[in-house]
Amino acid sequence: MLNYLLFIATMGGLYGLLALSLNLIWGGAGMVNLGLAGFFAVGAYASAIFTTAGHAPIVAGWALAVIAGGFAGLVVTLSTTRLREDYLAIVTLGFAEVVRLVAANEIWLTRGTDGISGIPGPWKSALGPDFNAVYLLIVLAVLGAVFVLVRRIDRSPYGRVLRAIREDAQVAQVAGKPVLRFKAEAFALSAAIAGLAGALYAHFTSYIAPDLFLPLITIYIFLAVAGGGTGRPAGALVGAYLLMLLLESARFFVELVPAISAVQRAALKELLIAVVLILVLRLAPGGVMPERIPTAPRPSTQGKP
Amino acid sequence: MILLQALVNGMVSGTLLAVPAIGFTAMFAVLRFPNFSVSGIATLGAFAGYLAYSAGLQLAGALAAAFVVAGVVGLFLDRVAHLPLVKQGALPAAIASIASGLVLENVIRFGFGNDLRGFDRPIARDMHLGDIRVSPQQLETMGIALALMLAVFAALAFTRIGKAMRASADNPELAALKGIRPQRVAMIASFVGMGLVGIGGMLLGLDSSIDPLTGTRILLSIFAAAVLGGLGSPTGAVLGAWLIGIAEELSVLVVGSPYRTAVGFFAILIVLTLRPRGLLGERAY
Lengths: 305, 285
Fold this sequence. Notes:
The complex is a heterodimer of chains A (305) and B (285).
Chain A: H1 2-29, H2 36-52, H3 58-78, H4 85-105, H5 107-110, E1 116-117, H6 124-127, H7 131-155, H8 157-167, H9 169-174, H10 179-205, E2 207-208, H11 216-228, H12 233-256, H13 262-283
Antiparallel strand pairs in A: 1-2
Helix pairs in contact in A: 1-7, 1-8, 1-10, 1-11, 1-12, 2-3, 2-4, 2-10, 3-10, 7-8, 8-10, 11-12, 11-13, 12-13
Chain B: H1 2-31, H2 38-54, H3 59-86, H4 90-112, E1 127-129, E2 132-134, H5 136-158, H6 160-170, H7 172-177, H8 182-206, H9 214-229, H10 234-255, H11 262-274
Antiparallel strand pairs in B: 1-2
Helix pairs in contact in B: 1-5, 1-6, 1-8, 1-9, 1-10, 2-3, 2-4, 2-8, 2-9, 3-4, 3-8, 5-6, 6-8, 9-10, 9-11
């Protein structure tokens, strides 16, 4: 039971990282990333390969995951930053698909559909049964650090520029802001966070395979961010744990439905999640924690007659 | 010779791909958001056609069933789930459409399982033109696709509603000013666009097999055809579909079949970098 709770809490923390990543660009700059699962996979594979085949220390693997995620983000976003956001939606969706194809077919690098097993966990043999608890603390520490970072960005002049771009990119451009650079940077940072989440995931479960990075994960995270409230980092965190609650209750719920096969149970669960996402978007677009728009400071009256 | 065969195969699959690509691009032109539920709708059309065909209907009847079922469900989803979100922007609508595509996929999985199903079509000997092989079935499905395309283009060019649709796509405010009711145009775009996507799903499944992921597999190719031709341009979608079809067949010769679906992605990246409005598009949105 304790292990189950630790597992849920850790997965919730990883989803929280992904939600912060998505919130940074969706809530922040009004960009979308339908390939979140792809960046998650890039980070997971980068770190897994570097630490197993490359025998690098785990921390180096995580650093590489951040770099690989950010670089992939930059490549994907460069061709679409000038265009309307729906192009980015199409491109990112395709990106996640290509990542999965590469992971499944470049067997020399990724071991194909067999996946990579035996990914080392930090101090795993020394910790023994306490590993899960310690890993949860690590994930929460990383989550806390990333949370502080994105909240700083959110409240800084940089974050204000991003929101200005979200509201009207043309006006931001006229105001002298280099819109393309801001969008590319925000997207790359967001992709780097997703990559880090992937690395943390790989070293937690010690096994990754292409089928673990289905587009469904992206749907989950959109649900977390939309449910928690777009545009607020705290909302993304709340949303991630609400998502965990929903996923687990959906799992218990479909177990209760009598006389259906395993395939039908899985289908029913995915169906429930998708319906909830539509309902949230339709009925509660602000989420549980809607964005607070600070009121503009009144123009100073001093010095006027 | 292998090259020529690949070109012929590419033309055939490209012609089939053009049908859903026209539907997708026409919906984008009128409704202004990329409708990702085409994946689920294509699968739905394929299964509706499959059920009708298994129940003893002729091919034409099965195609009609695919068109109507996909059109009605697509229209319903647009009304209930996607279009109410468009006023918040294209992105919420696009995200909702991914979710509704997932709903359809899983409804079909719930009902039919993950097994592959094939249309039980009469077996016929391949025809040989020199060294090139074509099956009579391929020619038949290709003929159906071409006839459908001609009908769509004729409707866009000559009928009142076709002209209204083009006017509305070009400039919604001006069209509304001229007495064209945007609601009606949007509904017809949803119905016909999704109907074409449904037929496309069935045509592409006709020669191979269908399962709950049929539509998801062709999603990127549909997008690539539409973006390559220029989002919002039906003629562009046809041209794009042929190019994507041929490129996919050629890619099999070069890098092998696993990377077939990656062709669409790289085509999109290249087009957006070099010519964002696509081959025949009038503007990049």
